[in-house]
Amino acid sequence: xxxxxxxxxxxxxxxxxxxxxxxxxxxxxxxxxxxxxxxxxxxxxxxxxxxxxxxxxxxxxxxxxxxxxxxxxxxxxxxxxxxxxxxxxxxxxxxxxxxxxxxxxxxxxxxxxxxxxxxxxxxxxxxxxxxxxxxxxxxxxxxxxxxxxxxxxxxxxxxxxxxxxxxxxxxxxxxxxxxxxxxxxxxxxxxxxxxxxxxxxxxxxxxxxxxxxxxxxxxxxxxxxxxxxxxxxxxxxxxxxxxxxxxxxxxxxxxxxxxxxxxxxxxxxxxxxxxxxxxxxxxxxxxxxxxxxxxxxxxx
Length: 300
Description:
single chain; alpha/beta; Arc Repressor Mutant, subunit A; Rossmann fold; five-stranded parallel sheet; 14 helices
């Protein structure tokens, strides 16, 4: 849940908590330049009351709350170009006009997803995948189909990736998976009940998990070992067709694959080409653009 939503929800808030929360929700954000003591004096409360509110919504204190909340406000106010993310084209658009708008939406989505990437989180996720003998994909609906592209790429460099569309089976796999297994969750909302049950089981067994989910915090990201954020501007329901979600998922999966590949670049490249040639002996094309592509050995 976004910090903004937690402040608005005011669950189990005292009257003092409500006063402080309403101040932080001020659209002018005048609090951003003030110290903890200045805010407390302005609201006629103690500094410890401000700290307790920050702790109540999941932070250690005021400083980490301020940093996270400012980052969130900056992200939420970021301009997604001139594109309506949920309705990128209208009923009068046709052909190249539609394709041009979708091109721009894809570009904006990838840039937005990239902006949310954390170096440390990505490095941690990469390390988990490199060490894992078995990688389980946990997702409901279309994202599990997108993950099959990731599965195919990983299998070709020797990584075992398991996808099961039956979530009940994934729960039992979480019960019996080996200690060096990693579960990769893909969930935009981060609140799918069965996926949360699987994540709880993994945490209970101290198994590692990676979550690809929406920015702002949710039940899944709270349970995962590490979280990578999807572009989070698209409505869950009110949209034409998840035009932003799917490219964001594919981008993060490709980033993960590429980082695993780069850990042992020369071996992975040699093995992939060797076994592809061995299996696809009869596959050919007379198009020089398809038949070339051999890497220059002198290039870095």
